[in-house]
Structure formats: structure tokens, C-alpha cells
Amino acid sequence: MHANPHLRTVRVFLQRASALFLCVSISDAFAASLDVAVLTPEGDAAVNQTVVIDNPGSGFRATASSNSQGRARFVGVPAGQGYRVVIDSTPLQSDIDLRSNERRALRVRLDDREIETVVVSASRTPLGVNVLDAEVRAGITQAELQNLPVEGRDLTRALIRLPNVVPSTGFFPEAPPVAINGANGLFTQYLIDGLDNNENFLGGPKFPISIGSVAEVSVLAASYSAQYGRTGNGVFNITTRSGSNDWQGEAFYLTRPGPSLDASSPFAQRDLSGNQVRDGFRRDQIGFSIGGPIVENQTFFFANVEFTDDAKDNVLNAPELGAVATVPGENRSLLGTLKLDHNVNDDWRLAFRLNRGDVDIERQGGGLDGGVTFPSAGSTQRRNSTLAALSATFDRDTFTSETNLQYSAFDWDYAEPRDAASPQVTVELPNGLTGGVLGHPGFSFDDRERSVQLQQRFTWLNDRHAVKFGVDVLRSSFELEGGGNPAGNYRVRLTDAELAAVRALGRGSALTVSDLPLTAEVLNYAVELRPARFGDDQTQLGLYVEDQISLTQDLTLTAGLRWDVDSLTDAGSGDTDTNNFAPRLAVNYRASDTLALRAGAGVYFERIPYTVLSDALQQNTTSAAFQGQLAQLSALGILPGDLDPAAVTFDGNLTVNPDCPGGFLNCPTPADSANLRDTASSNERRILNPNGLDNPFTVQFSLGAQWQFADGWLAGADLLYYRGYRLLRLRDLNAPAPFSPNLANLTDANISALRALPDDAARRALAESLGLIRSQAAADATRPSASVPGGARQIVVSETAGESRYRALNLTLDRDPLGGPFGLRLVYTLSELTNNTDDINFRSSN
After folding, report:
1. pLDDT (tens digit, 9 = 90+) per residue, 105-159?
2. Which three-class secondary structure state does DSSP give residue 520?
3. Residue 61 half-sphere exposure, CB side, CA atoms within 13 Å?
4. First CA to last CA distance, the chain
5. What angle, 0 to 180 degrees and rounded to 10, lies between the N-to-C axes of helices 748-756 and 760-769?
6. pLDDT, tens digit, for every residue of 777-817?
7. Do the strands 682-686 and 792-815 form a parallel or antiparallel pair, or are they unpaired?
């Protein structure tokens, strides 16, 4: 167990926090827009009325005149809290919170200056209906996050309280734990202040932002603006906290006390990373935030630091090797955010933000209820992220320019070994069972990603029109060191005498590879031929134009067009998919002061995760035998007739099994075994798609209504229909011929005969003779290209040919706590999702 956990947690926190703020970086904050509809006492549009919005906390102030529809529009308003609407020096509405990229509408009657709020932002302050667009959105504010009982101050655990957001499962523990509309969470767009926060290798969040630095988090589930791209799923957008003229701050210590107070559970728990832990694991968290003015009304800062330490125990149960012990482990994370906002003058504003995250997840060996992996074969998963960005906003009269630049780095070492130079050794007992695993995790996965993002957006206001034009470029460079262990993976068998000698050492859980006898019999040896780091670049370009037209004061039309290009669609063809035009249309009609109807339709293109290219490189080979198989598939028309093997093959990772005449710890090195690339047979190899890839997309339709039927009460209903096309999936180009069992032989007599046989081998032989099943050899015989030394049984390619369909009815009921002594949100979703893809790196089961 861990000694003095409180002192250790505080000491490590102070060390890491000091190191964190030695970093110097810059970041951004996206702006919002506000639409104030001004009415005469008779309810008509008040034209040429001067409207002011200001923020006493930051010194921000802007003025606009109402157009022919009575609307005063403000663009480029810094996201933040505490805004007011002022007419004739009279504040008519206070405490307005604006999120990044939000579009908010308010209504004002000039007779009594009573403001009628008719749209709700994701902050839900105050509650009202959306009369601007067809966005299906919702959110959680800073105050709500602080009051919710969220485990470990983990933001993702609060997101399931949002409409259209559900828990999800992925094919690895650290996969995103939530999904929008039931779709794959890897294709969700994760934004911080409107800028990319996706790790683009797989697609999950890059920086796990802490609750203490969040002003508001919102979800866009359907019919959102053309400025959002690279997802056919949905968007999570986090608005970070800023400083103001008022000093603010907090300090906290939070503990999950562990076995002294924990109740037992028959189910394994999960830590904040998604990995399973035993009952009684301990968590300590400590952190602080502080914000305020550097120069009053001009320059502000906000800083947040949170440190988390998990103490977790596994059980090592390897008595034959003399080791039965509790193995302690730790998870550690340090998350920091630094934010600066500066008002240059009345027209120019700058914002800076730095996010730095260091997350270590230890795999210390053992298992939840006992395992045979020794600590020497343990590893640590490291996820280190840095986001640094700068934004500049120019806003004068009817023109607004917003420029945003972000640099980000993400290092993901999935299994950093305790001894990188050690082989992995699986020890087999004399009875054939596995007694222990020592030395090395047995594989390598160390991904490095460096990205630069540039966004430029212009907005022009012209009477009834608000025209927006923007460009968004994201350039990422990737390197991956992957594959097997270059020091080799051994499986050895010990004799009774050798086993007794190992136990006699008394090493217990400290046993290492060097403690094993060199006379151990080598049953199997595998080594990675190419322990190299390789990668490629990805460029994603998006252009969009959008016009929000107030046809009347009650009817708003939003029309947009987006164009996306992703360089990874080249694959093995050399041709980029450029035909990605995405029109979007939304209509909103204010039927009354308390009822709004909305409808939206659009096309939404998705990015290609880099893992699709990386896997095609990593699991590829240039052996002559493999290229000969590709030539056979080309001659059969399965691959293009003019196929260039060099365009689709690559010298990727390859684990081979050389002979080991030298005995244990003296088997051939990667250099000694390089010639096996041409002779080693593989179960599966991949190639780049010679036809290239297309960007997946969805066609979306939504129809909804919002009704504020009482003070503080809001009801909503939305119908959603999605069709997904060109979705990613794998295909075996060398698949065996289809097989249909001879069901005529599935008689009662044959079933009885199968049951009467003594073992599986006999039953399998009879079933094959009856035509009920076929053997692997029989299936392989029907493959278009027979497996040969240096070749592969399965020749796999990623293709964009999958489809999906999603239909849903979403019902929501909200009561704002500002309208009474309590607040609530009730959500009900009735939905159906079908697809023929499974996931990006899987073959559909049917």
C-alpha cells in the first residue's frame, strides 16, 4: 500500500504545477453574436433604434442600430458572463452569458422597456425558445457543473445529462465515454473555444479539460451552422473561463478515501481513464483557480491547475514462481489552463489560452482478481497534450473579422515499458499452463502528433442579412513507433528442477528475466523486423459561406454551403476527394412569444482518422510474394488492372518467428532476421486503397418545436432523420468463397450422432463430411490467391462504402432554477440506429 498519500499528493502537485507554469504559450477564445429585436408599443419593428450591449466585468461595450426588421445585430462579442442590454442608458437585461460561437436573440418592447427573452443559450440563462435557427443544442453552465455530483470533477461524466448524449463503448478503454445520437464517439468534433481538440490519430479528445476551467459546455446534435465541419455526428464545444474586473478563485482538496470507507461491489469499478480497478482504490485531487484584472477594463487573466492521483492495487498470483503479492500502482494527471484577454481599443481585441495536460496511467502488473504478469512486464500509458492558440477580433460597425491560430502537440505512448531493452518472456510450467509473464509489454505504440490550425472568419451585416464567410485549415504531422518487441518475445518451458531453482531465489514479485535459467526450453520466439518510427501528414481544408436572412421579424432563414478537402483520401490512388460540397438550410418561425417552430436539412462530411492510413502502412509489406498476390487479384479484376504495387505497399512492421539455435536469450535480432520479410507467411496484411477514399458524410433532416408554456418552463420536441454514406470499414480482398451449410443433413439422427462422439475433433470431422461446416483449409482453398511464403491469407483494405440510418424522437422538459426554487431537465429519446460497418478498423460481421 502507499505511505503518506496526502503528503505525497501535495508534494507531487507542487512539483508538477511549478513545472507546468514554466511553459510559455498563447491561445484563443471564439466570439458570440447577439440579435436584439426591438418592438414598438404596438408590437411593430422599431427601426433605427440605438441599442448598446456592455459588460461591466470586462469593460466591453458595443453599439448598433436596428434594421428594417427591428433587429440590432452584434457580432464578435467575446464569450463570457455578465452582459447587459441597454437602451437610452437604461439596462433592460443583465446577467447574460454568451458561449463561444453562440447566436443569441432577445426581444425588447419600447413601451415599458420590458425585455422578453425568446431564445435559450446553452447556458439556459434565462430560459426561452430559439427563434434564430434550427440548431438542436443544449448545455451545462459553470454553476451547474459545480453543483452536479460528478465523480472526480470529470467533465465527460457530466455530458450524459445533455439531450442526445448517451454513454458509449469503444474498442479500447480510453475511447470517448459518450456519443451523440448513438453514433461513434471517435467521429464527434471536440472543440475548446471553437478550436479543434481532437487527437486526430483515432479521434477522441486531446486535452481532457478540467471542470474548474470550464465556463460552459454545449452539444450541437443536429442542424448546426456551416462553420462546423469534419463531423457527420455532432459537436461538443467548451467555453473556457476568463478573468474580469472582479477577482475570483477557488482552492480544493477532494478525496475518494479508499478501503477505509468504501462499500464492496460485485462489479469492477473504472478509473477516470476508463480502465478497471478493484474495490477500495484511492483518489486524491488538489487544485486551484484564480482570475482577475491585470489592467482594469483592459487586460485580464484566469489560471486553473488540477492534479489527480489514483492509488490502485492489483493481485499477482504466481505461486509456482514464488510470487503471491499485492502490486501497488498509480494514475497521475496534471491539467492546467492559462487564459489572457486584452482589449486593445474599441475595435481590436486579443485573447490567449494555454492548455497543458500530463496523464500517466500505470499498468503495474497482476490483475483485478489475480494475474500472472509481473511488475517487470508492467508499463505506463502516457497521454501528454499541449494546446496553444491566439485569436484576434476586429469589430467595427457592420464588419467583423475573427482570426484564430492554434498549435497543438499530442504524445501518446500506450505502453512505455519499465525496461525498453528487455525481451518479454512468458514462462510455461511443466504442466503446460502459464506461470508468469516478465520483462516487457511485448508491443510498442508511441504516437506523436503536431498540428497547426488557422481559422479566418468575416461577417458582414446588411439590413436583413448577416453574411458569414470563413476558411479553416488544419495541418497535422504524425509519427508512430509501433509493432512488436525488437528485443523479442519468448515463450519458454521450465522443468521441475528449473522451477524449483527459480522459487529458491526468493525474489517474489521482483522476479525479472535475468533470474530465469538460460537452459529454459524455447517453445516460441517472435521478433519485430522493423522497429522504426514512420508517419505522414494530413491536411484538412474547409471553406464555407452562410447567410442568416430575417425575412420578417418572426421568420428567419439560414442558408449555407461548406466545402471540405482531406488529403488522406489520396490513399494509394494519388487523387484527393474534392467533391465534398455540403449545403445546409434552416428555417425558424416564431409562431408566438412563447412558441417557435424550426426545420433543418443539410449535408455533413467527416474527416478520415489518421489510423486508417497508419494501419495500412504499419501492417503492410513489400515482399515479392505479396506483390505477386496483388498481381493475381489485379488479373482477376478484384484490384484495378493497371495496379502499381509500389503505390499501395510499404515496408511496415512485421513480427516473424525465426529459428533459435542459440537458445534462450540468444535468438536472432531484427537485423539477423531481415531476410524473413520475403519468406514469412502472415495471416493478414493490408494495402493502401488503390481507388482512394471518399470522405464519409451524412444527410440530416430535423423538425422541431419549442414551447415556453409557463414562467421558467420550456418543452421541446425534435424529429431527427440521418442517412450515412461512404462510411469506413475493412474488406478482405482475398476472401474465401461464400459457404452455405447443407441443412438437409441437419437431421435428428445426425444431431444425435454428433452428440454421441467423444471429442470435438471427431464431431468436427463428421460435421465436415455432412457439409454442415467447412475447415479453414477448405475455405483457404477457395481464396482467389493462395497464401504463399512472404504473402498473406487475408489481404485487407479500408474502403468508404458503408451506410447507416438513424431515426429519433427527442422530447425535453426544462425548468430553469431562476424561475423558482428548483431546476430540472427531463429527456426522453426514442431512436433506431442501423449500419453495416461495425467500426473503422473492423469488418462488418454480416
Report:
1. 777 777 644 444 443 333 333 456 788 888 888 888 888 888 888 888 888 888 8
2. coil
3. 11
4. 48
5. 150
6. 999 999 999 999 999 999 999 999 999 999 999 999 988 77
7. parallel
Query: What DSSP designation does 787 have?
Result: -
Provide Rg for the chain, Cα atoms: 30
Cell of 800: 468508404
Q: C-alpha distances in angstroms, 356 versus 95, 304, 307, 385, 474?
A: 31, 11, 12, 6, 20
Please tell me whether residue 366 adopts helix, strand or coil conformation. Answer: coil
Q: How far apart are CA 177 and CA 170, in angstroms?
A: 8
Q: Is 288 helix (H, G, I), strand (E, B) or coil?
A: strand
> What is the CB neighbour count within 10 angstroms for residue 370?
12
Residue 820 has pLDDT above 70, yes or no: no
1: pLDDT confidence band, cut at 50, 70 and 90? very low
Count of CB atoms situated within 10 Å of the CB of 651: 15
**Could you give the CA distance from residue 466 to residue 460 in angstroms, rounded to a whole number?**
6
Distances (CA, A) of 8 to 13, 310, 330, 513: 8, 12, 12, 31
Q: How crowded is residue 446: how many other Cβ atoms within 10 Å of its Cβ?
A: 16
Question: Edge-to-edge strands of the sheet including 235-240?
Answer: 136-141, 214-222, 235-240, 189-192, 195-196
> Looking at 344-484, which runs of residues are DSSP E strands?
348-363, 379-396, 399-417, 424-428, 434-438, 443-462, 465-484
Tell me if 137 sits within 8 A of 103, measured CB to CB: no
For 27, the grid coordinates are 491561445
Q: What is the pTM for the complete model shown? A: 0.87
Element (H, E) at 630: helix 624-635
Residue type, 550: S
C-alpha cell recorded at residue 251: 482552492
DSSP character string of 8-59: HHHHHHHHHHHHHTT--------EEEEEEEEE-TTS-B-TT-EEEEEETTTT
Cα(636)–Cα(624) distance, integer angstroms:
19
How far is C-alpha 582 from the chain's CA centre?
23
**Cell triple for residue 466?**
448577416
- What is the maximum span of the chain, computed from C-alpha positions, in angstroms? 101
Residue 846 in this model has a pLDDT that exceeds 50: no
- Residue pair 343/59 in contact (Cβ under 8 Å)? The answer is yes
**632 φ/ψ angles, rounded to the nearest 5 degrees:** -65, -45
Distance separating alpha carbons of residues 125 and 816, to the nearest angstrom: 8
Chain centroid to Cα 8, Å, comes to 32
Counting Cβ atoms within 10 Å, is residue 759 exposed (0-12), middle (13-18) or buried (19+)?
exposed
What is the distance between the alpha carbons of residues 658 and 669, in angstroms, rounded to a whole number?
A: 9
Per the DSSP assignment, residues forming a β-bridge with 323 are: 318
Distance CA 338, CA 354 (A): 5
Which CA distances in Å does 668 have to 6, 220, 530? 49, 55, 14
- Residue 751, phi then psi, degrees to nearest 5: -65, -40
Look at strands 489-493 and 424-428 and give their pairing: parallel
Question: In whole angstroms, what is the distance from residue 3 CA to residue 170 CA?
Answer: 35
pLDDT in tens, 197-213: 999 999 899 999 989 99
Contact 132, 34 (CB under 8 A): no
Query: In this structure, what DSSP letter does residue 516 have?
Result: S
Cα separation values, 298 from 342, 406, 413, 775, Å: 6, 23, 42, 76
Residue 413 has pLDDT above 50, yes or no: yes
Quote the strand ranges of 168-247, DSSP E: 178-180, 189-192, 195-196, 214-222, 235-240
CA distance 648 to 621: 10
Whether residue 126 is preceded by a cis peptide bond, meaning omega within 30 degrees of 0, is: yes
CA distance 245 to 39: 33
What would the DSSP string read from start to end of 237-282? EEEEP---SS-EEEEEEEEE--TTTPPP-SS-EE-TTS-EE-TT-E
Q: Which three cell numbers stand for residue 797?
A: 483494405
For residue 742, the one-letter residue type is N
Which ranges of 457-537 would DSSP assign to H, the alpha helix?
Answer: 496-504
Which of 81, 87, 85, 116 lies closest to 102, judged by CA?
81
Do 152 and 180 touch, CB atoms closer than 8 A?
no
